[in-house]
Automatic annotation (TrEMBL):
It catalyses: L-glutamate + ATP = L-glutamyl 5-phosphate + ADP. Pathway: Amino-acid biosynthesis; L-proline biosynthesis; L-glutamate 5-semialdehyde from L-glutamate: step 1/2. HAMAP family: ProB (MF_00456). The lineage of its organism: Bacteria, Bacillati, Actinomycetota, Actinomycetes, Propionibacteriales. GO terms for biological process: L-proline biosynthetic process. The keyword Cytoplasm applies. Belongs to the glutamate 5-kinase family. GO terms for molecular function: ATP binding; glutamate 5-kinase activity; RNA binding. This is Glutamate 5-kinase.
Amino acid sequence: MRAEVADAERIVVKIGSSSLTDETGHLAPGRVAELAEHVAALHARGTKVVLVSSGAIASALLPLGLTRRPGDLETQQAAAAVGQGILVRHYSDAFAVHGLLVAQILLTAGDLQDGRSYRNALNTVSRLLRLGVIPVINENDTVATSEIRFGDNDRLAALVAHLVRADALVILSDVDGLYTAHPAEPGAELIRRVPDIAQLTADTSRVGSRVGTGGMSTKVEAARIATSGGVSVVLAHADQLRRALDGQEVGTFFDATGRRRPRRMLWLAHAAEVRGVLRIDEGAERALGQGRASLLAAGIIEIVGEFEAGDPVDIIGLSGDLLARGLVDCAAQTLARRVCDGGLAVHRDLLIEMVQ
């Protein structure tokens, strides 16, 4: 048994469109009901569960008379607008059988990039969990554009796992797990455990299904984001959802490698929108490397971008290598004149080493 999952107090469960649809690509209510049954069982034993669910566009295919996922953004957004209500209705009905309420939360990347809306999302989800409600989170496809998309719900699920301080993230898909090579290749073997994702060498070229958007590479990236913040990850086939949620050894398990960080640090590392770049000299680089000191304005030799006080910026060395990310203490124009209060560009407690 995987104690990290079996004993988890908070779990984020992500399920993809391909795992909620039938062979024709249309939403399968029976699969929604099965997912609700097992999530309800977790809830009954005291586990707080947040569900990140794809499937809005797939839910609208049949009502709109579409035979496949639309390719243009306008039709995708229209289908999402129709399908989101259908999807959440099925979830509401399925969880009602077990005496549970669900709450729909739609997010864009911009919602988590902004510090204020990030806190608002946290407060809402936290209150729902205290009320015993199952949050069902999805990307807000009706308004998201290519510039403000998560790209897929795998990355969204990893960020939500950070948001709610989950112990584990379970990603349910149409694949058995991560393989040493493309699963169709002879000799490809399932990787049961990944102790350190930084040392991983595997083929992630598998593309997404015809009703989904994610592929294996997005799942590995989601695992990297989650594990770097102390969250264990399971990648398993949706047919194994009960065993995966019970902590049995199915699919691929990614060990948490990073330490638990404050939410602000995780937001800054993985969700915040970087507004500028500060290039620093050798002295400032040494100071940052020897105990993560505050960054003084005097150590900055180049300022790129227009930013205000409190905005996230990347800090690079003379070689151009990324050293850290932080929240600037003053605006770009003020910083350029070296007149920041006390000469500080980034306070030590607002500076993080980048999560690799």
